[in-house]
Amino acid sequence: MHPVAKRCLTWAIVLVVVGAALYAWGSDLMLWFTDTVGAGAEPAVWIYGFLLAMTSTFALPLAAGLVTATILIQTLAPRSAASTDSAHSD
């Protein structure tokens, strides 16, 4: 596998796991954070909620784009000489 494609696929898997976890437990995390910080830290709660919403919103579409990039890189990347020689010897 091409090194860039492998890196894209690794990041896509990480983003899917993080995005799915935030989608599933994001509201619970928000409630926990609000209870922990208290009522006086409303700006911190707002910033945390905004970051949580942005991460859960963009993680899965970005992961889909990275999987698409992986497929394109694997398809369009030049093959190494060793793999082409073994393919022609059969």
Structure notes:
Helix content is 88%, strand content 0%. It has 90 residues and is mostly helical.
Give the biggest sheet: none
What is the structural class? mainly alpha
Beta strands, count? 0
Topology as a string of helices (H) and strands (E): HHH
The helix count comes to 3
> Whole-number average pLDDT?
81
Low-confidence blocks of residues: none
User: Into which percentage range does the β-strand content fall?
Assistant: under 5%
Relative helix content = over 70%
Radius of gyration: 21 Å
Principal-axis shape equals: rod-shaped
Ends: how far apart?
Answer: 21 Å
Write the layout of secondary structure elements.
Elements: H1 3-37, H2 42-76, H3 81-89
Helix pairs in contact: 1-2
Give a short synopsis of this structure.
By secondary structure, the chain is mainly alpha-helical. Helices cover 88% and strands 0% of the residues.
List keywords for this structure.
single chain, 90 residues, mainly alpha, 3 helices, 88% helix
